[in-house]
Each structure stands twice: as structure tokens, then as C-alpha cells.
Write a structure and sequence with these properties.
Elements lengths: L7 H6 L4 H13 L4 H17 L3 H10 L3 H27 L1 H19 L21 H13 L3 E7 L10 E10 L2 H7 L4 H5 L7 H16 L5 E5 L2 E9 L2 E7 L8 H10 L4 E5 L4 E2 L4 E5 L6 H10 L6
Parallel strand pairs: 1-3, 5-6, 6-8
Antiparallel strand pairs: 1-2, 3-4, 4-5, 7-8
Helix pairs in contact: 3-8, 4-5, 5-6, 5-8, 6-7
Length: 313
């Protein structure tokens, strides 16, 4: 079995708020959710950004959540311990030299992600990650090791949006995300309060993109693929049969996008998805807005979009 950190929905299942969970499930069924439930789910999602999905972290946080600040402090303490444990385990399983290279890449992933600020994550850069090593050939071994260990998420980048997508990807052209959003915040030293207040400046874009990559990775069997062409890019592409649906990620409620407009002009997709902080809705121009907290259930939305003629603009 492939096991992943708890998704946001799995976190909700353990949070003991039955009415909110019912509203969440009803929203999935009805493609509509009450504003008060939407706002509350965003609050829960911000907590999940801090806690992440590592079982020990989630268990301790939920057991202590009546003392909220103490629960957050405990979560960060456990996360720091887990990061150290992973680093120590590299040497046990990969040998001293390989472990040093694996460690360098593991620590570098959050740093590269943070460098993009509020812009979309771009291709992974190999330069200066391991002293004396450069290029994909020198780093491919440690990257593959971390991928097989489930400690990173690799998203290939296609320069065309045609079936099969994989044929327009290159082995050395990809994005890397960390496997757990909670550990990402921990490794970057972002204080929980800063995340909860949505007050971390130009870091929200990459942070939310990492979260969506996690949710998609745990809920779909397909390879995650991004699209980049000249100055335009779409975070994820999803292939259903002979159709490709672009998925754009926004950290806030602003949804205007030159990249999505460029993609639509080039490929005329039947549908497009924007994952944002806005409420659930579909618009008149074939763009459907999916709230961030439903990122792990895109398959259900795709099924409804393709079967229900009432959803067609």
C-alpha cells in the first residue's frame, strides 16, 4: 500500500466536528456550500497548513487542541524531531556519501520553493544544491531516492497540452514539492501564528501550491504534470480520456489570470478549474471555482461536470 500523510479531509474526520463534516460532504454532493461553513472550513484549512498530515503530529494536536497555543507548540516540536529523524535515517539506508547528497536535496526543496514567493513554482534548479555537483545527471540519484521514499512530490513539466502528456515532458524538467505541508512550514521556520493569520507576505503562492500537489498526489493515480509555454504556465493538467483539464491554483480570492487566458486561447479546453479561497461556483466562461479545501476531491467534480448537463454554461 502507498501511504501518504493525512489529507485535509482525513484531518477533518478526526477533528470531532460532526456538523462541519456533514456540511463538507453535502457541499461535495450538491456543489454548493453555506458561507458560514465555507469560512469555517478555511479556518480549519489554515490550521492544517500548520499541522500537516503526519499522524503523530495530528494525534497530539487534536488531543491538546483545547489548549490551542500549547497544541501548536507541541506540533512544531514533533515536526522538528521528525525532520531530524529523516536526516538520521538517510545514512542508515543510503550510505554516508549518498546520505549527504540526499540530505542536501531534502533541505533545498523548501528553500527553492520559498524563493518563488507568491508566484507559481518553476522548474527545479540543480545549481549549487550539492557542492561540486551540477546538472540533472549528478542529482538524479538522490532525487529518485527521495521520490521512492515518498519524501518529495515530483511534477513533470509539459510544453504542450496534448494527449499523451507524458510524451511532451523531459526527464530533467520538473518541479519538486515537499511531501507534507506541515513539515514545509517547520523547515522554513514560519511561525504557526503567521500562517494562521495569513500574514506571511510573498510566500503564500508556493505554500498553497505545495498543499494542492499533496492533495492531488494522494487522491489520484496519474502522474502530476504541469504546463509551461513561454511566459505562461498552469500548475497542473489532468487528463480524462482524450480531454485535458487545466487546474490553476490561487492562494486568495483573486482569480484573474493571464496564464489561464493564454492556455484557453491556445487549446480551447471544454472546462478549466481554479482552486482558490473563493466559494464553490461555476462561471459563464467554462471556468469552475473549487475551494482549496476540496482539492483532494477533484475526481468527483470532474465526474459531475462531465455527466450533469445543468453544469454546462
Amino acid at each position: 500500500m502507498n501511504l501518504y500523510p493525512l489529507t485535509f479531509y482525513e484531518y477533518l474526520l478526526n477533528d470531532d466536528e460532526q456538523l462541519l463534516l456533514e456540511e463538507y460532504n453535502n457541499g461535495l454532493s450538491n456543489l454548493s456550500i453555506a458561507r458560514v461553513a465555507h469560512d469555517r472550513l478555511l479556518e480549519k484549512l489554515f490550521i492544517y497548513y500548520v499541522i500537516g498530515g503526519m499522524p503523530e503530529v495530528v494525534d497530539n494536536f487534536l488531543n491538546q487542541k483545547n489548549d490551542f497555543q500549547q497544541a501548536l507548540n507541541t506540533a512544531r516540536t514533533i515536526q522538528k524531531s521528525l525532520v531530524n529523524d529523516y536526516s538520521n535515517d538517510f545514512a542508515k539506508h543510503a550510505g554516508k556519501l549518498n546520505a549527504a547528497h540526499i540530505q542536501s536535496i531534502f533541505k533545498n526543496i523548501p528553500l527553492q520553493l520559498a524563493s518563488y514567493g507568491d508566484y507559481s513554482v518553476n522548474r527545479y534548479k540543480f545549481k549549487d544544491v550539492i557542492p561540486g555537483k551540477k546538472g540533472f545527471g549528478a542529482l538524479s540519484g538522490p532525487i529518485n531516492w527521495l521520490e521512492k521514499a515518498g519524501l518529495l512530490i515530483k511534477v513533470l513539466i509539459s510544453n504542450r497540452s496534448e494527449i499523451p502528456l507524458i510524451s511532451f515532458c523531459k526527464d530533467n524538467f520538473f518541479k519538486l514539492y515537499l511531501f507534507d505541508i506541515g513539515l514545509l512550514g517547520c523547515m522554513l521556520g514560519i511561525e504557526p501564528k503567521t500562517i494562521l493569520l495569513n500574514n506571511y507576505g510573498m510566500t503564500k503562492g508556493f505554500f498553497i501550491e505545495n498543499y494542492v500537489a499533496q492533495e492531488l498526489f494522494a487522491s489520484t493515480e496519474a502522474n502530476l504534470i504541469s504546463w509551461q509555454q513561454r511566459n505562461a504556465e498552469i500548475e497542473f493538467l489532468y487528463a480524462i480520456g482524450n480531454k485535458i483539464i487545466p487546474i490553476e491554483v490561487k492562494s486568495g480570492k483573486r482569480t484573474k489570470s493571464q496564464s489561464l487566458k493564454s492556455y484557453q486561447n491556445r487549446y480551447q479546453p471544454d472546462y478549466a478549474i481554479q482552486i482558490t479561497a473563493k466559494e464553490l461556483q461555476n462561471s459563464i466562461n467554462i471556468i469552475f471555482n473549487i475551494p482549496l479545501y476540496y482539492a483532494g476531491f477533484l475526481n468527483q467534480f470532474f465526474d459531475k461536470i462531465s455527466k450533469d448537463d445543468n453544469l454546462h454554461p
